[in-house]
Amino acid sequence: MKGRRKKEEGRSGATAPFVAGAAAPACPLPSSFFLLPSFRVRAWNRDADYPLFCEWWAAHGSLAPACARLPDCGLVVEAGGAPALAAWLYQDNSCGVGWLAWFVGKPRCRDAARALPVLLGAADEVMRSQGRHTLLALTGKRGLGRALARHGYSREHTETQYWRILQW
C-alpha cells in the first residue's frame, strides 16, 4: 500500500496535478519561506502596500496598474525587513498556468535585483503547491527579460513574454 500511495502522489511527493475549476487558496506561501538568509517573502497587503508600489512605479517612469487589476497573490520580497521587490501572480482557473507580472523594485536599491531569485522561487512554490505546471513571466523590460532567461525562462514573444515549465 505504501508504494502505491507514493506512486499516486507523483515524484517527490508532489501534490496532485492541477484540476480545472478546483478551488485553491489565492497565495499559499509557506509561512517560513526563505531562500537567502537576508530575504523574506510575504503576500502583499493591498491597502498598505499599493501606495508604496505606486511610488516605485512612478520613480521608474511607469504607470501603476489599477489596484483592482492586481490579483490577491502579490509576492513581496523584503530585504532587512523592508520591501525590495514585488510581482503579482495571476492563476488561470481552467488549466495549470500562471502569469507573473507587474514586477517592481524599490528604486536605487541593490537588494531589488538580488531578490529576483527569491521572488521566482516563491512563485514556483505557490504554483507547485496547487499542482500547476507552467509559469509565464510578462515584462517589457529587456534587463528583466535577460535576468529571467538566466533563471531558466525561455523567451517566446519578441517583446514581453518569457515562460518556463516547472520541474517536479
Would you mind describing this structure in some detail?
This protein is α+β, with helices and mostly antiparallel strands and 168 residues long. It has one domain: Gcn5-related N-acetyltransferase (GNAT) (Aminopeptidase, 3-Layer(aba) Sandwich), CATH 3.40.630.30. The chain has five helices and seven strands. The chain has helices spanning 2-9, 46-59, 110-114, 116-129, 142-150, and strands spanning 39-43, 74-79, 82-91, 97-105, 134-138, 154-155, 161-165. It has a seven-stranded mixed β-sheet with strand order 1-2-3-4-5-7-6.
Strand order of the largest sheet: 1-2-3-4-5-7-6
CATH superfamily: Gcn5-related N-acetyltransferase (GNAT)
**Overall helicity:** 25-40%
Mean pLDDT: 78
Given as residue ranges, the uncertain stretches (5+ residues, pLDDT < 50) are 1-16
Shape category: globular
Q: How many domains in all? A: 1
- Number of DSSP E strands: 7
Measured between the Cα atoms of the first and last residue, the distance is 23 Å
Task: Please report which band the strand proportion falls in: under 5%, 5-15%, 15-25%, 25-35%, 35-45% or over 45%.
Answer: 25-35%
Alpha-beta content class: alpha+beta
